[in-house]
Amino acid sequence: MLQGDGREEAEGRTWRILVSEIVGRDVVNRRGEELGTVDRVIRSNDRLYVVLEHGGFLGLGEDEVAVPLDRISSVQGDDQLLMRGMSEEDIEAMPNISSETGTELRANMRVEISES
Hints:
- This protein has 2 helices and 10 strands; from the N terminus they run ββαββββββαββ.
- By secondary structure, it is mainly β.
């Protein structure tokens, strides 16, 4: 168990992590490409998504895309999440979402990230 920061590691490499511990993290793929930064976690049609901000410069002109939470395969250190099966090009090709899409999860809610 990881102490003091709201994260727990259970058997089978499944992390139960607070939403507040996901928001603001950088997301990278296995090649080390930066895919974006988690802005929020939402529920839409009974599925959880991370909303990534990508592109832009210094917070201006950023696009937002929703990626299924189950694409996140591990927590890396204190500032990164690893996403499998996505490239920068895949993220750029995804449609932008509106701020009204889905229901935002509260910061004190826990979600599961399973390594695969």
